[in-house]
Design brief:
There is one protein chain. By secondary structure, the protein is of the alpha/beta class. The radius of gyration is 26 Å and the shape is elongated.
């Protein structure tokens, strides 16, 4: 099977969630013995459609603009058994360069109209390959893709079969170290989807569900997203640089601290016991909260617990410095900058992420 993958993301490497999913989808396809060619549209010489209709009348089947779309991309598309269109979600639809590529497909149609499935369409000059659409967006709500999906459905030619739509929300957040395990599951499922497409020309509902699984509740994701952007602004780094450097978002409130800590703490360190970790903050955020570890899960609550196994008394800003690597926790403890009551070795295990 020959597959063409068209990626319209302007970002590459660590900064591109679109490329991340595309690469794993392609991996699955190649492992299933498909011949896959990847085209990054931003690397190509592409001009917008002139609307001159020369490709219908003066040079039938061929655009008068001799760029990479005419010379390379359309011939590759027509020679493929399947085309994967990958785009980041911009204003709830495809990127501009992907739109240009689609608009320049006019030469592969004839200037003759026929009614198909209740709507009038132009007849294709060639047999058209089935399509897969893949898109990502930073927001956590699946409804963000409704406009794109509806547009693709309304503009799809009856002769072009829509094989699958892969829509991944929370695309920026999923690359946070705290979601390492979930990201691994998402990428494994994406590899599986590539193999399924080659073997059966479809993706099973279970595989789609694994790819699109939520990271956590949308409200908590919004808090973490806002923290990340605030940290980027404060440190003058881009999101790409943030992830490349392995940075941690800096909580700026008790609520934000509790939300992020639920993800960052090691729930399994407590073993089979119920463990309570108490925090008492002073300074910029004079408040208390505690975390309860039980059966591999963590619950957070404000205030003071009636009983606890470990209590940490610390200035809020100091602990945020420790969380984000601006201060070394052991050194600050030895200098008496914060106090710990209870099992120190257990405390260290609770703050050690699983797998590190």
């Amino acid at each position: 099977m020959k597959i063409l993958t068209v990626n319209s993301s302007p970002r590459t490497g660590v900064g591109s969630s679109t490329e991340l999913l595309v690469n794993h989808l392609v991996q699955g396809m190649r492992e299933a013995d498909a011949e896959v060619r990847i085209v990054n549209l931003w690397e190509k010489n592409m001009k917008p459609c002139l609307g001159c209709f020369s490709c219908w009348i003066k040079t039938p089947g061929c655009c008068i603009q001799k760029d990479d779309i005419t010379n390379e991309l359309l011939p590759k598309l027509l020679a493929s058994d399947l085309v994967v269109y990958a785009t980041p979600l911009y204003f709830r639809t495809m990127s501009a360069v992907m739109s240009i590529f689609r608009e320049r497909m006019l030469p592969i149609f004839l200037p003759f109209i026929e009614k198909r499935d209740g709507k009038r369409v132009f007849l294709p000059r060639h047999k058209l390959p089935p399509a897969v659409w893949l898109s990502v967006c930073a927001l956590p709500d699946k409804s963000e893709f409704d406009a794109l999906s509806s547009f693709l459905d309304s503009t799809r030619h009856p002769d072009v079969r829509m094989v699958a739509e892969i829509y991944r929300t929370s695309s920026e957040a999923m690359r946070h170290p705290v979601f390492k395990k979930t990201l691994s599951e998402i990428l494994d499922a994406t590899i599986q989807a590539g193999g399924e497409l080659v073997r059966s020309m479809k993706i099973s509902p279970g595989t789609i569900e694994r790819i699109t699984q939520p990271l956590m509740d949308p409200e908590s994701l919004a808090i973490i997203g806002n923290l990340t952007c605030k940290t980027c602004l404060a440190e003058n780094v881009t999101l790409k640089e943030f992830f490349e450097k392995g940075m941690t978002p800096r909580p700026d409130s008790l609520e934000a601290f509790m939300t992020y800590s639920i993800l960052g703490l090691n729930a399994e360190a407590a073993g089979g016991k119920k463990v309570t970790l108490q925090f008492r903050f002073s300074g910029a955020e004079e408040a208390s909260c505690y975390f309860t570890f039980e059966k591999g899960s963590i619950q957070a609550a404000t205030g003071d617990s009636n009983t606890y196994d470990i209590a940490i008394e610390t200035p809020f800003e100091l602990w945020m410095d420790i969380m984000t690597g601006k201060a070394e926790g052991r050194e600050m403890f030895m200098q008496g900058k914060y106090r710990v009551e209870g099992d120190l070795s257990l405390m260290l295990e609770l703050f050690q992420r699983k797998g590190e």
